[in-house]
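Pilot study result, target chain (271 residues):
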Amino acid sequence: MSGIVIVFDFDKTIVDVDSDNWVVDELGFTDLFNQLLPTMPWNTLMDTMMMELHSNGKTIKDIEEVLRKIPLHPRVIPAIKAAHALGCDLRIVSDANTFFIETILKHLGIREYFSEINTNPGYVNEEGRLRILPYHDFNKASHGCNLCPPNMCKGLVIERIQDSISEEDKKFIYLGDGSGDYCPSLRLKEKDFMMPRKNFPVWDLICRDPSLVKAEIHGWSDGEELEQVLLHLINKVSMDQNSPFISSDCKLQTLSVSALEALPKVLPVRP
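Predicted structure:
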């Protein structure tokens, strides 16, 4: 299925929590984080928090150990492996940072399944402190999108990926949960699929007016449903291209009636 590009958000999509909050909370700096939160953009705050961790004797090893314990649903990794085995091009577009994401993916043994990771730069400087920088340097120029945070417009990233893929028959499947995933959902085309996490911010934004999203909308609530819906959509595309796959391991269940009723737009199934 080289004709499918699957774009994953990371926090609360691949992993089941926000990785920024996870690190701050697990290392005992929640109060300071909450105190500083109203005073600066999130991306700047995370860089500041990494400085505070370093100043208080927390090491890169401490951060890595916390990241390796991050919770995720047990069906997410099998879903990623199955999609990759079927030939899909897997990518990440996330407002986390390269250090957190790379550390977690390598620990889980799934880094090599992703052809591209688009996120805020994160690196260890010469002092042994983790630096986190913005994907779009908003100190130099704004990315111009009022739907997205100043450091990253995921919609622009999706447009760049779309422009880099020349084949007209490529179909996108986008999975996300947060308000930052709404902008890219608006950039998808009618042939594409949007998988918002049910009852999370992007779901609520889409529900206000589902007609603004051209792609087919298929919600999911947890890792088990993520796997079912994702493999169902891959199978759907493969059947459209007259190359169905059969797997005894996959439960290609249809979406629940209640999920479909929440978004009437998904009721008409294209032949």
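One observation from the pilot: The mean pLDDT is 89. A full batch analysis is planned for the follow-on phase.
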